[in-house]
Each structure stands twice: as structure tokens, then as C-alpha cells.
Amino acid sequence: LQGEIDGLQGQVDAVHVSYNGLVVQEDELQSQLDNLQAEEQVKQVELTQRQQILAARLIAAYKTDQTPLLTQLLTSGSLTDALSDVSYYMDLGAQDEALAEQIQQDEANLEQMKQNVERKRTSVAVLASQVSLQKADLDGQMHQLSSARAKFASLQNQIAVEIAKQAAANSKLA
């Protein structure tokens, strides 16, 4: 019976080590998931800000386009001012184009991050399931070990009682 208890204790120890390893992995994956979600939120805010900037610039550009070119030339103080305005509008157009490209890139990156978050979420769920199964196995083995120890203790008590009876009988005979 002591061999059975020792064998069960070895199994429990092995399951406990495995369980602890899974818990550590789950914690690491959860931490990675939390970091990815935080990064995703930051990128979403950045994307929204860029989209708002581009929208404001497009509205301003639309309003400027509503002013006829001749009116813009006539209201300029000089030809230099008019050329400066045209150069400014061209620069804004180039910046708007670059901003639109950045927004497209941000949207693609954000979509990739969302997929990564979902994959991590799935990994965490799978690992949590494994941890739960391992915990149930560990609990079962701990119960078996406790039962074996209780049985062993009961047998030891019975043996002690029998030895005491035998000693009492021997002392009466002597």
C-alpha cells in the first residue's frame, strides 16, 4: 500500500508541475493579449484622428474650390501672393494624399492587429481549457492520494491495535 501511495504521489507531483507550466503559459498569453488589445486601441485612436484631419482638410479644400480662380487672383495683393496661394494649395493636396495613403495603411495594420488579437484570444481560450482539464485531473489524483493515505492510516491503526492485543495476550501468558 505504501508503494501505491508513493506512486500516486509521484503522479500528483508530475501533474502539478504540468499544471503550473500551463498556468504560466496562460498568464503569458493573457499578458500578450492585453498588450495587443492596448496597442489596437491606440492605433484605432490614431486612425480616427487622421480620418478627422483628412475630412476637415477635404471640407476646407471643397470650400476653397468653390471660390473661382479669377476671384482668387483678383483678391490677392500681388501675383506673388497668388502664386504663393497656389503653391500652398498644391502642398496641401500632396499632404492630403500622403495622409490618405497613411490612413489606408493604418486601416490595413489595424485589421491585421484585430486578427492577431482574435488568434491570441483563441489561444488563451484553448490553453484555459487545458488548464481546467489539468486542474480536474490534479483534483482527482489528489482525492485518490488522500483516500490511499486514509486507508493506510486506518491499516496502521488496526495493526497497532492488533500488536497491542498480542502484547497483552503475551504478557498474560508470561
How do the strands and helices of this protein lay out in sequence?
Elements: H1 2-65, H2 69-75, H3 79-173
Helix pairs in contact: 1-3
What does this structure look like?
The chain is built from 3 helices and no strands. Helix 1 (2-65) packs antiparallel against helix 3 (79-173). The chain is mainly α.
Key terms for this structure?
rod-shaped, mainly alpha, 0% strand, 174 residues, single chain
**pLDDT < 50 runs, ≥5 residues:** none
Q: Structural class per helix/strand content?
A: mainly alpha
What portion of residues belong to β-strands? under 5%
General form: rod-shaped
What's the main sheet like? Answer: none
**Average pLDDT value?**
84
Helix content: over 70%
Short description:
With 174 residues, this protein is mostly helical. 95% of the residues lie in helices and 0% in strands. The two termini are 34 Å apart.
